[in-house]
Amino acid sequence: MRSGDVLARIANKFKTTPELIMRTNNLSGTMLRIGQKLFISRTEFSILIQREAKLLYLLDREHFFKRYHLREEKLPANPPPKINTRVAEIMAWKNGKRVGLGSRQILNSTRWIRLGTPGYVIYSEPDDSHQILEVPPPAQGIGMTASDVEELSSLVNTRTAVTIVQ
């Protein structure tokens, strides 16, 4: 680490996320020390969503990494059988306000993952760990448990390809 390095800048340089660096290095916050050594994971994640099976697969270099269950689907009428898109934005809310992805407030925030195709948002639904969410669900999108969206949002970034099939 050099003076002036910021976790988000490091994550961007190595094509990863600040949260993944934090998890990999067991960091409780975004503050770094000069000279601190970090482990950087070299993942190339993509997402495959199977709507009829209600499953989302996180793939690393096209190989299975983790499976998540979809809870709800509120998509535009007559969606095409296959959509190829990307993660457009990771959004987080805490205390009713949007928070930055590299900030301390990101921990235990309500997360959404907006995709590049209009009307496609992966949003949080209440679960045992997140019984009250900061924002109501969007009019359209794909609902997953808040814990799953929190985890998924820490692993993907705006380079992550997304394929949605029936």
Tell me what the structure shows.
It is a single chain. The chain is α+β, with helices and mostly antiparallel strands. It folds into two domains: 1-42, LysM domain (Membrane-bound Lytic Murein Transglycosylase D, Chain A); 71-161, no CATH class. The chain is 14% helix and 35% strand. It has helices at 7-13, 18-24, 146-155; strands spanning 45-50, 55-60, 63-69, 72-74, 82-94, 97-98, 110-115, 121-125, 141-145, 161-165. Strands 1, 2, 3, 4, 5, 6, 7, 8, 9 and 10 form a ten-stranded mixed beta sheet that branches. The radius of gyration is 16 Å and the shape is globular.
Gist of the model:
The chain is of the alpha+beta class. It is built from three helices and ten strands, in the order ααβββββββββαβ.
List the topology elements:
Elements: H1 7-13, H2 18-24, E1 45-50, E2 55-60, E3 63-69, E4 72-74, E5 82-94, E6 97-98, E7 110-115, E8 121-125, E9 141-145, H3 146-155, E10 161-165
Parallel strand pairs: 1-10, 8-9
Antiparallel strand pairs: 1-2, 2-3, 4-9, 5-6, 5-7, 5-10, 7-8
